[in-house]
Amino acid sequence: MTWFWSATRMDPHAVLAAFDEQIRRHPEPDPPDGTVEHDGSVIRHVSVASGWTGVTWCDLDHTSADAVIAAQIHRFAELPTPWEWKHYSYDQPPDLPERLLAAGFAPQPAEALLVAEIADLTLDLPPPPGVELRAVLDTPGVEALVSVHDEVFGGDHSAVGRSVLVGLARQTRTAAAVVAWAEHAPIAAARVEFHAGTDFASLWGGGTVPAWRSRGVFRSLVAHRATLAAARGFRYLQVNAAPDSRPILQRLGFVRLATTTPFMHPGGSA
Length: 270
Known about the structure:
Elements: H1 12-24, E1 35-39, E2 42-46, E3 54-58, H2 65-76, E4 83-88, H3 96-102, E5 106-107, E6 111-117, E7 132-135, H4 139-153, H5 158-169, E8 175-182, E9 185-194, E10 200-208, H6 217-231, E11 236-241, H7 246-252, E12 255-265
């Protein structure tokens, strides 16, 4: 099968500005107990349970950066877990990564911030023969999703499962998940979040077990989630792509707008 996409009509600079304003500067708290804190030149996510915790946006300069970093370390010292400063390549000052390193942060593998205009994507990309895509609607579906994530990405993704279950219980669904099945076994899984009041839906967790890679399963999961987002009126899909998925997504029509690097702090005071 040949994969086609139309030439993008996006203005990358305008889309990046919209992403920064709509997603980074106006984030949504993670269920079940997450909160968002606006503190002058930074915006933080805080979760006592299993949600994401860290700095999602900042507006710093060379005179304020070190003091603001120290203030965030002091704020998060109250929590018992590590936390993340999510750095984007256009964040200021330019030497912010070096300042984070000096303050005790450790960089994790960088990812590409990719965005596609849904109207530019080919949505008719069914899974390969013998594979069925099933929406995650109940506990067994969540368990299948978690098992795929654990196998593909390593580690324990039970917190993701708990978050999906909380979302399923909501009257208004702000996310959806899908699992690909073959021979009565889950072989791939992915999620999409719908950011109400914005132009963006975001892709998360797309992964396929090794035996089924390079057969079109991943691409069918992208098209499936794009279709869900289009039906809800969203204009763009956004994803933080690892090196293995980035070429596939760019062939499908995603455009690289920036690089994002998670800087992890172990927690406590530095």
